[in-house]
Amino acid sequence: MLPFLARRLIVAALVALAVSMVAFGLMFVAGDPAVVLAGQAGRAQDVEMIRQAYGLDRPLPVQFLGWIGRALTGNFGTSLYFNLPVATIIGERLPVTLMLGSVAFLLAILVSVPLGIAASLKPGGLLDRAALLLAVLGQAIPSFWLGLILIVVFGVWWGLVPISGTESWQGYILPVIVLSYYAMPALMRLTRAGMIEVLGADYIRTARAKGLARLRILMVHALRNAVLPLVSLAAVQFGMMLSGSIVIESVFAINGLGRLAWESLLRSDLPVVQAIILILSLIYVTLTTAADLVNAWLDPRLRSA
Amino acid sequence: MARLGLASLMGGIALALLGLSAPPARAGKADDTLNVAFALEPEALDTYKIAGREGLILSRHIYDGLLYKDLDTGEIKPALAKAWRFTDPMTMEFDLREGVTFHNGAKFTADDVVYTLNTVLDPNYGTRFRIAIDWIERVEKVSEFQVRIKMAKPFAGAVEMLADALPIYPAAYFKEVGSAGMAAKPVGTGPYRLVEMTPGIRYAFERFEAHYAGSPKGRPAIGKIVVRTIPELNTQFAELLAGKLDWSWRIPPDQAARLASRIQIVNGPIMRIAYVGLTVAAKAKDYPTRNLLVRRAINHAVNREAIVQAFAGGASQVLNAACNPKQFGCAQDVATYAYDPAKAKALLSEAGLPNGVDIEMVFAAMPRPVAEAVASDLAKVGIRVTLNEQQYAAGVQKWRAGELPAFFTNWGSYGTGDVAFIISNFFGGGADDLVQDKEVIDLVTVADTAQDRALRQENYAKALKKIADQAYWLPMYDFNINYGLSTALNFKPHPDEFARWWLSSWK
Amino acid sequence: MTVLDLDSRILQRRKLWRRINRSTGIHLGGGLLALIAAIALLAPLLAPHDPIAQDLTRRLLPPFWQAGSDPAHWLGTDNLGRDYLSRLIFGARVSLGIGLGVTLCAGLIGTMLGLLAGYFGGKTDMLISFIITTRLSLPIVLVALAAVALGGASLQTLAIVLSLLLWDRFAVVVRSATQGLRNREFVQATVSFGASSLHVMLRGILPNLRNTLIVVATLEVANVILLEAALSFLGLGARPPTPSWGLMIAEGREHILFDPWLIALPGSALCLLILAVNLLGDGVRDALDATSS
C-alpha cells in the first residue's frame, strides 16, 4: 500500500511539472500575453511597456523556473487581470465548483447506475429502449440549450428558482440537473454494457443455478465485476465536472473554476492559468489513484499489481 | 420521432415566450437598486491598468478626474480642478477645488494629484495605455490647492485625457497600499462608493452622500447599483424578461427587435468602427493588396449597405473615410467606392488578374456572420478569401509582423471624438501602420501635435483623402449599441461607450 | 476462443449472420447510418440550394411549421440567408467524417495505451498513467488556441488535434478493464501455453473489451461533433463557410431564446446519428454475444 502511494505521489509531482511546463509554453504560442493584456486598444508601445512591467520579456525558461520556485513556497503570484493574489481568486471560485460538481456527480451516479442495471436485465425491453433514448438525447441536446429551457420554464414562467447565480442553494438546482444530465449517458451505458457482459458469464450462471437470490447475484457478484471500468470512467467524469462545464457555468452565471480557467486562458492571465492547471492535475491524479484503489478493493486479484 | 418531438417542444417554447405576459419588470425601482449585467468580467478597479470597457465604466463611478467632459454639449467642465489654463504651450496650471473628500474621509489636496499622476507616469507602474500619459513630463505642486503639469510633447488630446480618464487617488492610501490595494479596495471621490466586491463576479455600489458639491456628475438619483457578470446573453434576456435586471447592453439587433415589445430597448451610436486593414508596406510580403487596383476592387466588391442593414442595424452607416464621422477632423469629402461587382472584376482584370486572386483574411473581435458576408462578396468577383478567425491578440500580432494581407476587426478610438485617436495609430508610421505612406505620416504627425484646430482639420482631411483614394482600408461601418433596460429606467446612452448611471433615474 | 476448430468457426459465422439478419437494432441503426452516409455522399444532388449562397435580404426565415415560412426554403434560412436544409445536408459530410474518423483514431490510440498499461502494469502502467493524467489536466482550449495561432484552421489540423486529445476515456476504461481481465483463468491459460504478450492482448483480452469499447465509442461520436463546433468557434475547425452540424448548433446559440429551431434542426440530425451509432453498436454486440455463447 505505502509503496503504491509513494509511486503515485511521484507520478503526481511529475504530472504537475510536465503539465505546467507544457501549458506555460502553449500560452505563449497561443498569443503573446503582453499583447493580450494590452487589450484591443493597446498599441505596440503599450505592449512593450507591459512586457517589461510584468517581466514577460525574460526568456521563457527563466520565467517558468521563477514561477515554479514561487509556487513551491505556496506563492502563486498575482492575477494579471484582477491584480489580486491568485489564491484569493481561486479561493472564491473553487468552493462553488466543488459543490456543483460533487452534487451533480452524486445525482448522476444515483440515477444512471440503477437505470443501467435495470436496462441490462432485459436488453431490448421497454425500459432498455427508454434508457437508450434518454442517453441519446442526453448526448445530442447541447447542455446550454437544456439549461436555457429550464431557465425559461422554471425561472421566467413559474419563477420557482433563481435564474442565475449561486447566492442561495436554490440557485444550484438547475445547474446540478443539467450538469448531471450531461454526465449520465456515459455512466448509464457503461453500467448496462458491463452488466450484460457479466450476467452472461459462467460464474453468474453457476450462482443462479445454485439458487442464490437474484438481487444478491446482481449486487454482489455481477455489479462488482461490471463496475471496474465504470469506476475509472466515473473518476474522469468527476474530474471533468470539477474542471467545470464552462458552458453550464456561463449559462447559469456561476462563477466557478471552469469559467475562470476559460476566461483566464482567453485573456492570457498566466499566473491564474498556471495555478488552475496545477490544481487540475492534482485533482486528476487523486481521482485516478482513488479509482485504482477502489478497483483493487472491488477485485482482490488486482491488488498484486 | 425524436426530431419531431424536439422540434415541436422548442417551437412551443418559442411561441410561449413571445406570448409571455408577465407584468413589466420593476424589481430594481422598488428597492432603489439598479441591477446591471455585463457579459465580460470587469478588471481590477485601478483605472490606469484597465483595458476593458466594463472596468472603466465602474471606475468612473468611483473616481473623478481634474476635468469632465459633458458629452451632450461637448463642453469641458471643471471637476476636481475648478479652473485651468495654459501658461505656455507646454504647461498647464490647475486651481483645485477645496472641501472635496474621498470615500475614506481623507481631504483632497494638491498632494493627491501630484502623487497619483507622478506614480502612474513611472514606466514600472504598468499604466495600460501609453497614449493616456506619455504627453506628461511631470506634475508639480504649486500650493496646497494648485498644481502644474509640464508636458513632454505637444498633444492635442491633453484636455480630453484629463477629463475623467486620469482619475485622482488619495495619496496617503495609495502610497500605503499601491495598485493592488486600490484594486482590492478602491477609494475615490466619485458619486458612488464600492461597498462590496467579489472580483469579476459582483460589485455593489452605494451613493456617496459626501460627493462634492458642484460636481459635474451631480448627485445621482439612484441610491444603489449592483453589477453582476452574466456571460450568456440569453440568460441576460431571461433575467430582463423576468424583471431581475434593469440594465444590460450590447444586445444584437435581431434579439433587440424581439425584446423590444417586452422591455425598453434604447439604441445609441458609438465611436467604434469596423474596418478591414490592408497590408501595403514594402516590408511585408508581396501580397496582392499592395496593388492599388486590387485594393480598389476590394472596396467595390463588398456590399456594405446590405451588410450594415442585416447585421449592424440601428443608427449604423457605411463609412467612406477611415474614421468615425462623429470625430473631429473626420473629413467626409473623400473618394467613395460604390458597390459595383462588375467594376471590381474589371479592376482585377486591369491589374492582370482576370482569373481572380487568393488572399487570406483574419477576423478578430468581429461577429462571424459579418466576416462571412464580406468573404462571400469578395468571392463573387474572384477574390477568393481564406477566412480565419483568431483571438484579437494572435491576430494583431500577425498583423504587426506583416504576416497578414487583410485584417478585419474594429477600433474604439478610446471613445474619443478626435481623429487623432484613430489615424495616428494606423497611418502615423507606428507598428500598426502597415501602409507606411510617407506623405500621410507627415500630415498626421503635424496634425497630431498642432494646437491650431484649423490646421489640424486641414491636415487630417488631406491624409484621409489620400487614404481613401489609395484604398488603404476597406472602412466598414460605425457601431451602435442596443441597451436592454427596465421600463422604469431613464437612461441616456453616450457615443463613448461609457454608461453614466449617475445621470440615470427611475421613471 | 483461441483453440476453435475450423468447423465450429464456420458454424459460428453462419449463426452470426443469421443473428445479424434478425436483429432489428442492426437493421435500424445500420440503415440510419447508411442513410446519413448516403446523404453526405450525394449532398450536391440532394441539396435544393447552394449551401454557401448567401442572401442577406432573406435572413432567419422560419421553417415550414412556423408562420411566415417560405416554400423555397423548407427548413428556413440561417443568419446569412443560407438555405438551412442544404446546409444540414452538406453538414453531414463534415460531422460524419470528423465524428467517426476522430473517434476511430482516438479509439486506436486510447485502446493501445490502455491495453499496454493494464496488461504489463508496473513501470509501463506508471508511464501511461502519467500520460493519461497529463492529457486530462491539459485544457483542450489551450491546445486548440495554440494550434490556431500556429497553423491556422483546417479540417486536417482539427482531426489531428482532436484525435490526439480525445483518447483519454478509451485509455482509462480499457486500462481498468484489462487489469480485470488479465488475471482471469482463460487469459492466464493462454499465457501459460506460451503465447506472446501481443497475442494475448489482441486475441485474449481485446475481444472481451468489445462491449466497453462499443459503448465508449458511441459516446465519443457525439462528443467529437460538439467539440468540433466549440473549436470552430475559436477558429479551429471547419473554415467558414463550410457547414457542419456542430457549427450550426454553435451558430444558432445566440438566437436560441427566440429562434430555437436553429438549434433544434441540427440537434435532431445529431440525435439521429448518435441513435444510429448506438443501435448499431448494441445490435452488433448482441449478435456477437449470442453466437459466442
UniProtKB/TrEMBL annotation, chain A:
Residues 94-291 form the ABC transmembrane type-1 domain. It is a multi-pass membrane protein. It comes from the Bacteria. It is found in: Cell membrane. GO terms for molecular function: dipeptide transmembrane transporter activity. The chain crosses the membrane at residues 98-119, 131-157, 169-187, 226-252, 272-298. This is Peptide/nickel transport system permease protein. It comes from Bosea psychrotolerans.
Automatic annotation (TrEMBL), chain B:
Its main location: periplasm. GO terms for cellular component: ATP-binding cassette (ABC) transporter complex; outer membrane-bounded periplasmic space. One of its GO terms (biological process) is peptide transport. CDD domains: PBP2_NikA_DppA_OppA_like_10. Belongs to the bacterial solute-binding protein 5 family. GO terms for molecular function: peptide transmembrane transporter activity. PANTHER family: D,D-DIPEPTIDE-BINDING PERIPLASMIC PROTEIN DDPA-RELATED, PERIPLASMIC BINDING COMPONENT OF ABC TRANSPORTER. It is found in: Periplasm. Residues 75-429 form the Solute-binding protein family domain. Residues 1-27 form the signal peptide. Keywords: Signal. This is Peptide/nickel transport system substrate-binding protein. It comes from Bosea psychrotolerans. Gene3D superfamilies: Dipeptide-binding Protein, Domain 3, Periplasmic binding protein-like II. Pfam families: SBP_bac_5.
TrEMBL record, chain C:
The chain crosses the membrane at residues 24-47, 94-120, 140-166, 213-238, 258-280. The keyword Membrane applies. GO terms for biological process: transmembrane transport. It is a multi-pass membrane protein. Pfam families: BPD_transp_1 (PF00528), OppC_N (PF12911). Keywords: Cell membrane, Membrane, Transmembrane, Transmembrane helix, Transport. Signal peptide: none annotated. GO terms for cellular component: plasma membrane. It is found in: Cell membrane. Belongs to the binding-protein-dependent transport system permease family. This is Peptide/nickel transport system permease protein. It comes from Bosea psychrotolerans.
